Amino acid sequence: MPAPATLPASSQPCPCGRKARGRSIAFADCCGRFLADAQTPADERAARVSDAETLMRSRYTAYGLGDEAYLLATWHPRTRPAMLQLSESPSVQWLGLDVRAHLPLGADRAEVEFVARSRDAPGRASRLHERSRFVREDGRWYYVDGDLR
After folding, report:
1. pTM, full prediction
2. What does the pLDDT look like over 4-35, one tens digit per residue?
């Protein structure tokens, strides 16, 4: 599995775009809590996530960084692919994330609707609009699947 891309500086705004009181949250205080420590196994880093929206945001950032281990560790075993091969996919630049809704459906289920914007290597822009499903098992959140909008 390839090494993740260069991490943002800890004080830079997090790529997921999360804000608090109208100000961007620093990478170290947001997704960096789950992605910056490459020495810790991805399963342990994934177990730190407290809710479905935070998991979805960290997965968006992990895609941008090419952190396949984290993406696979946060994917529910029932729907997880055997591998992702992000390094073999055409180059994609993730440009922004808009979380439209975080819908808790009880203590152990939730949905997150989002739009992720990207640009491919030739410069074509695209948008991924999805309503994702998440479950919590043994205290840990997992991405299950989603419906494109």
Report:
1. 0.93
2. 578 999 999 999 999 999 999 999 999 999 99
Paired tokens of 118: 């990207």
3-state secondary structure string across the chain: CCCCCCCCCCCCECCCCCEECCEECEHHHCCHHHHCCCCCCHHHHHCCCCCHHHHHHHHHHHHHHCCHHHHHHCECCCCCCCCCCHHHCCCEEEEEEEEEEEEECCCCEEEEEEEEEEEECCCCEEEEEEEEEEEEECCEEEEEEEEEC
For residue 13, give every residue at least 6 positions away whose Cβ sits within 8 Å of its Cβ, in sequence order, or none. Answer: 24, 25, 26, 27
Assess contact for 91 and 120: CB atoms under 8 A: yes
